[in-house]
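Self-study notes.
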Amino acid sequence: MPMRPTLLICLGGALFLSLGCEASKCDGENGQSAVCLKSLKRFDGETVTQTAAYTAGADVSVHNRNGNVEIIAGSVDDSVVATFQPFVLRAYDTSESVVADDLTKLEASATTDADGSVTVDVSRMSGAESTLGADVTVELPPSFAGALGLDQDNGETRVKFVGSATTLGVTNRNGSCELVTGASDVSVHCENGDLSARIDGATPQSGQGFRTDNGSITLTLPADGVFSVQAQALAGGSVKVEHLPAACSVNAASDAAKTLSCNGATDADPIYSAKAAGTSLADVTLTF
């Protein structure tokens, strides 16, 4: 009677607890056919920096399938600078030649489009490992005043600078989001992760606001602004208000739905929206 394949546990460390394992064929203790699960290790490639010409007022879009994205202030007004840190997660004992081949299948670019807008893109060739990606740092011109858009499949989003952006649009399908903004059109959707945002200045809003499908939201607000926030915890969580200034008031429809108004705000003033969904642990916190 032929022996059945055996499944062996992860080897080589505790990283599999957070990063998973890689399966490969191997021999069992008694020579039988087996499948070994090996813990993953991150292998980094060489850092690459690309520069794209930028025209004042043009838009910037960032697309990344796998890896963190950070947006910071640059030092020149006529360029967008993108720095890519390639990586791949493979079994801890993967050979250098295999890793090197994996990294050749990453496609990363920073280009200026025909209309003057800049696109920063990270993708993978067909057949590439699903764990192949790159962490990206994008340096915006100090005088940036266009629309900023981020589309991310997996990884953390960190927006530390938006300049005078007219629009901020963020979609992150798996990862936490942390950002600052003073844009008048804000649509931030952090699908699976917590969202933390600081609003530097209240401006009229035309976007969809701040949303999560599975995560909490924390908004840090300007105490001297004239604005309102409509906050909802949609999955059984609660809306919390911390360090409430004397010039602000809270109207509570329930623990999970509250409207915050500051400095005499009316319907004619900026109105922000914050909606957290997912589980009963998904709260909305408004703080100053």
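Second protein, same conventions, sequence then structure:
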Amino acid sequence: MLNLSIKEALGRLVSMPNEMYDFNLLVSCSWGVYGKAKREIAHILTMLGDESPMVKRTIAEGIIGVKTRLDSREVVYGLRRLFDEDSFVFQYTLKWVPVDLWTLSDMDYMKEGVRKLRNRIQAGEKWRMIVEKRRYTLHHKIEVIKELADLIEEKVDLKNPEKILRVDIIGRYAGISVLTPQEIFSVAKPIDT
């Protein structure tokens, strides 16, 4: 008879991938429209120059992982151009976010990921952090923010940051990025501000 901890038993009940994610974009959509959103993503990326992107479900409903051969930040700028030309191209996808690296969602691994990227926040630049947690209960959002923010010495500006340290935790993995506000595309807020 197997002796499993509650955490191990729950881990087996929740189907989680064994391989580290390697997506360079996360795309959000409404629940229940994965198939339509997947086709929309493939169509849009084809329009931008990638005829064979990898588009897959994540364990979080409404979050799609995308691996494109295109530069993910250039994709975001291309999305803005497409939106300006024909906003109806976006029927199912809501937000497109570049991801710089993936790590395990254990705090020590996330800290190491932030250490690798923190030099992208230059001396004197103001920044903020966004943490999105899905299917993750190991740490509270405030705890994640406090632990990771301690690694960045520059001043925080929650309203008008020059850079955003974004941490997307999806189950056992965390996608970490350092982005300008213009490097995130949202259908609800498509224009640079």
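Instructor comment on the second fold: The CA atoms of residues 79 and 150 lie 34 Å apart.
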